[in-house]
Amino acid sequence: MGNIFAIIGVIAYYLFYPVLLILIIFGPMMEFDVLREIYKLESPRGGLTLWAMTFLGFLLFLSYRYPRLGWLYRRYPVLIPLLQMFFVTLVGIEAAIFFANLWADKQLIGKGTSIVLSIISILVVRVYLSYWYSKYPISYKVHKM
């Protein structure tokens, strides 16, 4: 019975994995346009939800954790840091969209405060990524595999 669930899980994973790659690689560009539209049109827009981000993160975790699912990373080792960078950037842009929607939808904060918080959230992510990859360079991760 356990093998059946394992086979179903692997099939479901491989069906969702192309969607994962598309959303993580092109997600920051698409979501940045959503953020720009919120400030341009002064109306709320929906980005990726918390559940979608959790699902994407869980699929990434599974692909890093289980070697049977991470065969693509063994073939192209540079995908690991690339997907990590894009995922963390996507999280930062989603935080910026959250702050922008606090202004545009709920009027809880002012527009200036919303812009400052959005910029800070994106800058914090970029500083974090700079720190992380200065401490653990990509070339080290690629050659380690």
Briefly say what this structure is.
The protein is mainly alpha-helical. The chain has helices at 2-41, 50-65, 71-75, 79-104, 111-135, 138-144.
Walkthrough of the structure:
The chain is an all-alpha fold and 145 residues long. Helices cover 82% and strands 0% of the residues. The chain is globular. 21% of the residues are buried.
Task: Label the structural class.
Answer: mainly alpha
Low-confidence stretches: none
Specify Rg, calculated over alpha carbons. 18 Å
Using DSSP, what is the number of strands?
A: 0
Q: Name the overall outline.
A: globular
Largest sheet: none
Helix segment tally: 6
Q: Give the SSE order as H and E letters.
A: HHHHHH
- Gap from first CA to last CA: 34 Å
Mean pLDDT across every amino acid position = 83
Strand content: under 5%
Give the fraction of residues assigned to helices. over 70%
Write a concise keyword list for the protein shown above:
145 residues; globular; mainly alpha; 82% helix
How are the SSEs placed, and which strands pair?
Blueprint: H1 2-41, H2 50-65, H3 71-75, H4 79-104, H5 111-135, H6 138-144
